[in-house]
Amino acid sequence: MLALSLDMGGTHIGCGVVRDNELLGSASLDSERARSLESLLPRITEVLRTLLKDSGVTAEGCDGIAIGFPGIVDVRNGRILSTLKKYEDAIDLDLKQWAIEQFGLGLRIENDARMALLGEQYAGAAQGVQDVVMITLGTGIGGAAMMLGKLVRGAHAQAACLGGHMPVNYRGQKCACGNVGCAEAEASGWSLPRIVRETPGFDKSSLASAAQIDFQTLFAAARKGDAVAGAVQQHCLNIWAVNAVALIHAYDPEVVVFGGGVMQSADVILSFVEGHVRTHAWTRWGIPRVCAAMLGGNAALLGAVPLLSENLPTL
Amino acid sequence: MLALSLDMGGTHIGCGVVRDNELLGSASLDSERARSLESLLPRITEVLRTLLKDSGVTAEGCDGIAIGFPGIVDVRNGRILSTLKKYEDAIDLDLKQWAIEQFGLGLRIENDARMALLGEQYAGAAQGVQDVVMITLGTGIGGAAMMLGKLVRGAHAQAACLGGHMPVNYRGQKCACGNVGCAEAEASGWSLPRIVRETPGFDKSSLASAAQIDFQTLFAAARKGDAVAGAVQQHCLNIWAVNAVALIHAYDPEVVVFGGGVMQSADVILSFVEGHVRTHAWTRWGIPRVCAAMLGGNAALLGAVPLLSENLPTL
């Protein structure tokens, strides 16, 4: 199967042409300062046309377009139900019309973490496994789950994609979602600066003079022995491990795949989470495998073929 | 459809004859001092025979026997995977053989909270709703979920039945399951006495002289103004509400049904949980209904017909 694929990230839009589990060509389009998704559509069209040409294939030869979108999406009717302060005009855009007019192709749109899970399950770290939980650590914490070979979606399309909003510390930090103590409120990109600043000893930490507090800065400072960085890193590892146990108890997976930029420190993260899962998860059948995503930024793009192949009510 | 139904509780075994959503007859069999399930089988057989007779129906007229069991059960192959210190010999018992020999009937066995959910969904508080979470508050906290009209079971038959083992307080109490801060470790029948005793002021509380500390004692003392009881009751309400939000985020239900003996205080519990869900759950589509189970101790028995009607690989 041949497909066009888009991954709408917070700062970039990934564009790809995929044949089955192979990325024939891809390009990244800066979207940081874009005022709307509509304003980007002409450039997206152009980039996809160029990719088709460079890959030596045609739109007519493709089976459809798949889009990974950062928000709550109902693939069954193609509706974007909730955005996260990015591409807010997407709710009212007729993307199906755009796909037909520009490429003569049908379109499916799905939550981006679900797309990444599909990609990793089809061509990456969870290849061939039917029961998978995906946790993407980034600005927020994205989640997705597959049970018995099917994506978990639920009645209102929001099941499993709120994996980062399991309340793991019920008297903890207020979350952007309205809840308290979500994994995301306790250990994600957006919540990290406040947590670091509120850690005792912050003013004497090397992080006090850092231009930006992100996971890369944090893990680097911890490696250099900074006590505040070390304590916060440990806190984040705890939260991610507990989040993994919550999702293991919820979805009964064989494999938990961690993705996101912070997985550059996969060694530290995986060994801690693995140990915690081994001692804390209630899984009499055995121990779920904990691993890092393999496809990096291409995971969601490679989710295109499994998404388009799925037996769904309508395109 | 006509069926025989068993609900194996910690202290009693419920026995019933059901026709569709109607209980034709039922009886309860004391199992508190039973040394094994095998030793109880002759009495169970006898009780079921009497119930059949009293109901004016025959075993030949029945479509099967359904059993709700307190443990992890794989209905697909009829195997009990894990017991909870009760009926431990059940793992090696050939219950199918018993059902055929004694009644000439096929048998299906399922986790008891899942059976209760089936009953409430078929004939009780969640009648006709396709997306339901059930939380049973008792000695432990049982869980079950139905998504898009199907029970959530997962790869190893343990999905959703660990709903009471969502870690909601990751630095909290050690749980019997090996995890830390599970809802069950924070607010269930078995964990309650320790929590009460560790509450500051306990020695001056009316609970210090109580023969037994259970939810009935706790809620009664709180109503009379006992400060320790009030504080612990509030703690339990918090935990149950947070647990509900975790399961709403996991399974995307329309309805959350609370069951168990403590629902005698349904007014206090539901109004608190409802308020918390309204303000804390991330559900753009609307607000999940929170309600009390309607069928009480008969819920699992009334799950028989939906369980036996399910399209499963083998009986």
From TrEMBL, chains A, B:
Pfam families: ROK. Belongs to the ROK (NagC/XylR) family. It comes from Edaphobacter aggregans. One of its GO terms (molecular function) is kinase activity. This is Glucokinase. Keywords: Kinase, Transferase. The keyword Transmembrane helix does not apply. The keyword Transferase applies. Transmembrane segments: none annotated.
